[in-house]
Amino acid sequence: MIQDPKRYTVTAALPYTNGPIHIGHLAGVYVPADIYSRFLRLQQKDVAFICGSDEHGVAISMKAKKEGITPQEVIDKYHGIIKQSFKDFGISFDNYSRTSAKVHHDTASAFFRKLYDEGKFIEEVTEQLYDEKAEQFLADRFVTGTCPRCGNEEAYGDQCEKCGSSLNATDLINPKSTITGTKPVLKSTRHWFLPLDQYDVFLREWVLEGHKNDWKPNVYGQVKSWLEDGLKPRAVTRDLDWGIPVPVEGAEGKVLYVWFDAPIGYISATKEWAAREGKDWEPYWKSNDTKLVHFIGKDNIVFHCVIFPAMLKAEGSYIMPDNVPANEFLNLEGNKLSTSKNWAVWLHEYLQDFPGMQDVLRYVLTSNAPETKDNDFTWKDFQARNNNELVAIFGNFINRVVVLSNKYYEGVVPQPNDFTDADEATLTEMRAYPAVIASSIERYRFREALTELMNLARLGNKYLADEEPWKVIKENPERVKTQMYVALQIATALAVLSEPFLPFTAGKLKAILKLEDGTLTWNAITLNTPLIKAGHTIGQAELLFAKIEDEEIQKQIDKLEATKTANAAENKKVEPQKDLIAFEDFARMDIRTGTILEAEKMPKANKLLVLKVDTGIDVRTIVSGIAESFKPEDIIGKRVTVLVNLAPRALRGVESQGMILMTQNSEGKLVFVNPDAEGVGNGEMIS
């Protein structure tokens, strides 16, 4: 670990511009990175917080083909949406760039060319999958097939999302082109490879020895596993028509592989920022007194802890990251977040439903962050944390302090009298919080840090509850001046210390207290001096947080249920048509409407109900295997469709004289065949 760095370069994973940003992205990468960067700035550190849109690679090409537009139209559309979402949620990048920018093309090309000229690549002719119908080589994500490790039939050519294994497209069993649906063939092509195996000793020494005590276990463990499996040369070029052209002769029709070009985007974005700010970019990437930190999700660990460091080592002039505090995944209501399945909470949609409540989402995502294991976001938990913590603890304390200060002193901070032991103990405890919270942030334990921030608000609430100034004011108004003075010091400390976590709330609180930005630093709270002085006038009370009602949460749950139903309908496979029959065959069936008069469970049979059905021609007994889907009392009086001339059949000693016709809806639930019933779609089999 670098001690007392002169400057910090903080990077956040470049999001793919093939869709908008959802809460999983925010929780896994961008809120933690923003908390860290804002904290450093409050400590008056030199920080470059860097990110940008990842606009090359197969994901973009696939999106373009799906939407029938060009890759450029895709990246322009989503770059704008993503950049606005980050701005809306207060992600305070010093520069948010894009890999389609000229500075990036130039930087990535120069990086490749230097390694090429120095003989750091291996040039090989290999056989890769080729789609003869589309007349193109298939990038990994344009191939699906069966995973050789777990048997998942929908694995991609670079990774199986079911078991997490990293794959090559040629490893897949029964591969299929996603472009044409045909089986690809092997065809020879020339590419350049980075020989990762040559950096094995360096990586073992740097990571396994150098960072065994300070890197997160999930990161360290994944790197260790990769190294123990044995590193192999990895292609840095691809046969594609979208990306940065390979800058050597004889490489026409080839581009830099996105995993090679994207991390260089951190460097090019820093160059762009430095040029704009009149700074020198090189110290932020090449000076040993710079601390480099990468914030990523767990799916990017190998790229930032094995491959990118090997690239930087091969180039020779760059520093290595001091830490890569990768988070695990955030699930949504028990299911994996999925862009393609629309199983997500999209940031731009969230703000439509909860305007002005960015900090509530930041708070919930931080308090439930998947720092060491996958965690689950639920709307009920979101509501509970807002109502029971932000409203009831933080907001309640601030509201009481401001209301009482205006009521008793017209908003003027009172001059305190003698401090009691309780006052002194409270102020001493308050001054300890900056160091406690800082320690957690510096160890990338943001959940822990947020808990300590809320403990400061709890301290304020406890102080007011113990002191009861609303009662003391009647007998000892001079004592209340000291009580309110102490409470206002805590409120001011909260205005400063909450800024990394809740920037919008901190801004509102500073406005209420009429504090100018930048007048108080993080460490000022630790000093034995007033944070807000006697005689200073504050503003009127304003609610920082609003209670969220059950109806608002149910609306979000219903939206997800609708998505689940839509996905089930879209993914449901309609059975193919059976062999043709003659009209006479159909005419032999006597299908009539009827009404269920009685229903009871068949003894010792979980699936069978014994029904009495009025068919219009008689009342007969029909045994039906629907007991797992319907309660007997719920279907009495139900209109049904009955095949009445089915030959009788004895089931567990009861003669069944017909068949109730059923089908399934999009969720796989049994539905009585009835033209008016909901959920009976075209193409369903009647059985």
N→C terminal distance: 68 Å
Estimate the global geometry from the Cα principal axes: flat
Give the helix level as a range of percent: 40-55%
If strands are numbered along the chain, what order do they take across the biggest sheet? 19-18-17-20-23
Uncertain stretches = none
The SS-based structural class is alpha+beta
Rg result: 32 Å
Number of helices: 20
Beta-strand share of residues: 15-25%
Calculate the mean pLDDT score and round it: 92
Can you summarize the main beta sheet? 5 strands, antiparallel
* Total number of strands: 25
Summary tags:
single chain, 687 residues, alpha+beta, 5-stranded antiparallel sheet, 20 helices, 42% helix
Description of the molecule:
The protein is an alpha+beta fold and 687 residues long. It has a five-stranded antiparallel β-sheet with strand order 19-18-17-20-23. A four-stranded parallel β-sheet has the order 3-2-1-13, sandwiched between helices. The protein has a four-stranded antiparallel β-sheet with strand order 5-4-9-10, with no helix packed on it. α12 (379-409) packs across α14 and α15 (469-475) packs antiparallel against α16.
